[in-house]
Amino acid sequence: AGRPDWLRLRADFPVLTRQVHGKPLVYLDSANTSQKPQPVIRAMDEFYREHNANVSRAVHALGSEATEAYEGARRRLAGFVNVPPDELVLTSGTTFGINLVAYSWALPRLGPGDVILLTRMEHHANIVPWQLVCERTGAKIRVVDITPDGALDLDDLRSKLTGDVKLLAFTHVSNVLGTVNPVADICRMARKLGVVTVIDGSQALPHRSVDIPVLGCDFYAFTGHKMLGPTGTGGLWARRQHLREMPPFLGGGEMIKEVSFEGTVYNEPPHKFEAGTPNIAGVVGLGAAADYLAEIGMAEIEAREQALLAVATERLSAIPGLRIFGTAPGKAAVISFLVEGAHAHDLATLLDLEGIAVRSGHHCAHPLMAHFGVPATCRASLAFYNTHVEIEKLAAGIEKVRKLLL
Ligand code: PMP
Question: Ligand 1 centroid vs 320 CA: distance in angstroms?
Fold first, then answer.
């Protein structure tokens, strides 16, 4: 096989050949959503051109082809994270997955005196669903702090993981700081105390090898569009016992075995949690994305992104007045930064005129921004399809903009 040819792989992404404001696009917003390679686009296109039908309903040829394409994608995706396909619920993304756990697992089980433990680095998708549960149950949220370099404060975690904690939800990789949390160690701690763990894998799956059983969590949610797949796709893995015990979240077609007005017999998991016609073509595309990533190799991708991150960090750190948020060892290729005297939005707007796409804002993490005492940051997030030339353009772009703004 040999080492991946990164420039050839980059050529699989049609949008990366675009010009923006007369300049070649430099796409550094992959933590927000990744770009899509030809095999993913082709898989969805082919589904609609040749196989389109609903799943699990029709006996005709196209119906069984569609069902096979959908279930085949589930198997490939399950293989990608090393779990049995019947433990993988297909969802519209991380947000849906976490809400499913909140409504089906937490809502019937929690009450006054119970605690949901979160961390300060969570995305709103891993905060707000738990607040909704607390409003209805009387449970309370407690928050684990972070260290100045943006790592999880494990001493603080230990001290807050007390007998009243029923659930611990935290991110695998921070979308703002790039911090990679020691998921397996933390889950081991929680498990000893009988605390159920929910992991937000949104930013992990696209960038490193994730073997869910090794992590020892109870639930693992992820989103398809950040891992080269289409928007509106994702998955939630849950321990079989939870899937059996949890009531359905949404009711409708597909999730039943038998319905009468006296009552309904639910389908087996994972179908029990997949009410209604799913995003069939999207899931097919996500299956192709998992294959594409696996073909390159997650270890190769991680090494490539770490090399780009090292250069970018060194280059950006040398710019006067530039501050990077999140410097924990082993972090992922996400660089949140501010330049002294410049507003994040002004920076991002002027960088856009250079063809450089970075995100500015609160990154759906208000509590984390409040912790650092800033309303917003700029964030350059990398993927394997980025190049060293693009890193240099980012640094040169920031230097130019800085002179304009100061
Ligand atoms: N968690 C994290 C860490 C994220 O970065 C994101 C996406 N920005 C989400 C959750 C939500 O993912 P989605 O919007 O695809 O449901």
Answer: 32
Q: What is the pTM of this model?
A: 0.97
364 included as an active-site residue: yes
* Contact status, residue 144 vs residue 119, Cβ threshold 8 Å: yes
- 93 CA closest ligand 1 atom index: 16
C-alpha–C-alpha distance, residues 133 and 110, integer Å: 8
Q: Is the CB of 223 within 6 Å of ligand 1?
A: yes
Instruction: State yes or no: ipTM above 0.90.
Output: yes
Instruction: Give every CB contact of residue 359 below 8 A, 6+ residues apart in sequence.
Output: 29, 31, 32, 348, 378, 379, 381
Angle between helices 280-296 and 38-46 (to 10 degrees): 150
Q: Which two tokens stand for residue 20?
A: 């923006």
**Distance of alpha carbon 136 from its chain centroid, rounded?**
27
Atom of ligand 1 nearest to the CA of 97: 16
The tens digit of pLDDT for each residue in 292-340 reads 999 999 999 999 999 999 999 999 999 999 999 999 999 999 999 999 9
Span 255-301, pLDDT tens digits = 888 898 888 899 999 999 999 999 999 999 999 999 999 999 999 99
Phi, psi of 77, rounded to the nearest 5 degrees: -65, -40
Atom of ligand 1 nearest to the CA of 231: 15
Q: How far apart are CA 145 and CA 123, in angstroms?
A: 14
Rg (CA), the chain: 22
Q: Is residue 357 within 8 Å of 394, Cβ to Cβ?
A: no
- Nearest CA-CA partner of 333 in 257, 384, 387, 266: 384
Strand partners, 200: 171, 221
Q: Of all protein residues, whose CA lies closest to atom 8 belonging to ligand 1?
A: 32
Residues 6+ apart with CB under 8 A from 78: 84, 85, 87, 88
CA of 78 to the centre of ligand 1 (A): 20
Instruction: State phi, psi for 332 to the nearest 5 degrees.
Output: -85, 175
Distance CA 288, CA 291 (A): 5
- Token readout for 237 is 């893995």
C-alpha 52 – ligand 1 centre gap (Å)? 29
CB 53, CB 62: distance < 8 Å: yes
Nearest alpha-carbon partner for 198 in 181, 176, 177: 181
